[in-house]
Predict the 3D structure of the following.
Amino acid sequence: MKIAVFSMTPLFENQIMGGSQQVLKDITIHLGDLGHDVNIYATKRWDTNTPFKWHKKVIVSPIFNFKQPYPDPYATKPYFIASAISDLGTLIADSERLYLHDSAFPFPYVYRNIPTVGSLPDVVYSETLLGSFTFNGNSLIVPSEHTRKVYLSTVGRFFPELADRLAVIHNGFDFDLFKQSKLNKLYHFIPKKILEHEYVVLHPHRPEPSKGLDITINVVERLVGQGFKNLVTLVPLWIETDNNKDLQTYYLSMRKIIHDKGLDEHFYFHPWLDWDLMPEYFSAGSVMFSFGSYVETFGNAVYEAIGCGTPVVVTNRGPHRTTLPDQFADKVESDNTLNIVSKVADILKRHRHFNNQQLSEYINQFSIQRMVSSYANKIVNAQVALPMRYVPEVIHSGTLLTLAPWIINVDHKLINEFNVDEKFDHNFLKVVTAIGGGLTLGQILALLKSESMATIQSYVRNGWIVPHNIQ
């Protein structure tokens, strides 16, 4: 079978920009192993546009002129968008299946006559959000139940058929690769004297403020103040930093904060590493941090670090609340620095790590084989789908409402995961416990006699409660 794949992000032979790109590589190599011919069409890179192979039957062709650096790829010239539509339409003409890896292609008329599967790897970037509202293929794959509920509570408000087209397939990992590993090749990229610190903190994330480097800096400052002097924090420099002034400015601002706090010797910025070095990298860590306000849909680095036996401390947001097993992660609130420091200090003092016996069930639960087989089944068996039926939304006194899946109750305050500075703590809290299974707008008004229908509708408009969908 000839399968075409669309990737909004640039792709590399050995380096991975993020977990979503590794998932794409694993899926397409599996399809190649099954004997399918896979052609991946991706955005051009800043260094080279030469096609390359991930597998003898998987070819990556950088052809699109979307804006770089990612995100906001559609902030480009109109004729580049027109060319992308024209090129993809031509290239998939003789393909039997189309897989839109990030569903960031909001032009369903291009794939109207080909069985199409999409995936939604994030709930943050504008191009993916727009693609979710315009998708009209056979099925949409999401990596977590939390992500499924987010899209059902937004896109699903207008397209009832979405519930039948959404499929949850957890990300999977090659735990034959991501396991406790001896340091060898890593010394060529990070000096041995750095890796020989007693405590090595990992912050392996993109240079986005929402990824929480500022929080990591504050936590490290307190740890050093508590006596963890022989500590270093590893921070990777994004792939295209040398060619991007905005990224250079970001890193300079972070370095200035580090310098002003007297922490220069406790931070080491290193090159973005090739994929085959990551098991050594995770194994080198005493602990891995994943803080910040970014709403993950899965968060691959956390799972890979655990596979290497390394403890992780993560913000208790998104799918981490339910998908990530509690016994392998310390879950914290990103604004509670004292609690974070306490948990990290305990991990460092006890030199806590996981062994193979502890990890056996975890490894089975998140196996790569389960993931790639599930994706392949969806893609190979896809059918041409009719456009989903749009149903205008009318909210009235009988409309059933539930608490939005991105709203959580912390210390008797409702917090919006998409805007952690938004907190809600007045009379609306009275209905939180009752609304779990859903209340009609009329019932809510009866409980909150001081509120008007317009006010309750504003709570819907601002994302605190949502019209009920199949969840």
In short: The chain has a mean pLDDT of 92. The CA atoms of residues 279 and 438 lie 45 Å apart.
